[in-house]
Amino acid sequence: MSAQTAARVAPPAYAPRPRVEQSAPAPRLRVVRAPAQARTRVPFVLVCMAVLAGALLAALLLNTQMAQVAYERLDLSNQLGQLQQDQKDLSATLDRKASPDDLAAAARRLGMVPAAGTGWVRLSDGSVQVAPKATK
Known about the structure:
Blueprint: H1 3-9, H2 42-97, H3 100-109, E1 120-121, E2 128-129
């Protein structure tokens, strides 16, 4: 066999494609442009403005509330200071009236006299044992 005969007899290096019969013609592809709609930014801008306005309003309300609480706190602090001063004044008055000299003067105004001794009351029958004598 010659080289030409062997080349003719040898199978091809690739397999031939089977033929597909086309019943309908292949659709033609074409480039389609996007619809010419202008996208508006108005809704986005309105949402941004609403968020900003809400944040500013919330900050304003929070600041106003904090100022109101600060004034109430100042008023209560002043009231507390006044009440503490009144309590100190009343304690000083009580201490002054509880002194022995003031107690003796108040007792004399009520008609009381100092006792010379000590006496006892028997609770079972209500009798007075060793009655003290008043000194003048």
